[in-house]
Amino acid sequence: xxxxxxxxxxxxxxxxxxxxxxxxxxxxxxxxxxxxxxxxxxxxxxxxxxxxxxxxxxxxxxxxxxxxxxxxxxxxxxxxxxxxxxxxxxxxxxxxxxxxxxxxxxxxxxxxxxxxxxxxxxxxxxxxxxxxxxxxxxxxxxxxxxxxxxxxxxxxxxxxxxxxxxxxxxxxxxxxxxxxxxxxxxxxxxxxxxxxxxxxxxxxxxxxxxxxxxxxxxxxxxxxxxxxxxxxxxxxxxxxxxxxxxxxxxxxxxxx
Length: 256
Ligand code: URA
What we know:
Blueprint: E1 2-3, H1 9-17, E2 23-24, H2 69-77, E3 95-96, E4 102-106, H3 111-116, H4 123-134, E5 143-146, H5 160-177, E6 181-185, H6 186-194, H7 200-203, E7 208-210, E8 215-220, H8 223-228, H9 233-250
Parallel strand pairs: 4-5, 4-6, 6-8
Antiparallel strand pairs: 1-2, 3-5, 7-8
Helix pairs in contact: 1-4
This protein binds uracil.
Uracil binds at residues 106-110, 113, 119-120, 124, 146, 224.
């Protein structure tokens, strides 16, 4: 390993924003990316991984199939399917480019998001912005949503029945966006999406498929966790590089 000499000033600044020392493998390219042939085996991209089909725990809201963005957003805004509607300030639908290659999915709105009606606007959101910048993306290029559209009181974990109520909304967003990649932030988002109890450590480093669409999905740490455990940022950086490489490959060589 060597300290990167080739990395651009801009990239270095982004990594600095994430508080990451920049080290690259000697065999890495100028952008710090290790080509697929030399990527460590843990980020090999298998063909369509077979995931257990989602087990519906709740019928979810009816008739979201076929809704356009306006109708879907309106239905979410009026949703009273679970008890979270009683404590929310407003729903947090999602934000960003509706034709994005990247769909970033977090857990649930926190206090800042509940107040502003937009996902990832607090401290975790600032780190998410820095993580995106580190791989050459800005917030406006991606679409950002959460498993839940409403804030759980006291920032507790989403309950399965709450996630089940919201899942049809997110599924419809996925259908409308048709992203090249879903990046799940944190254990809870990843486990809910993949209907799995597997640890985050075991879900990282591979390309999953989200059923029923088969959309590729990769997993990394939640920025709120990275704020508490900055030593893990290196692993998040590796995940981001692998995700960027995957999107580039599926874009036929076009920049992601
Ligand atoms: N954490 C999340 O998972 N989502 C948000 O929107 C904000 C913080």
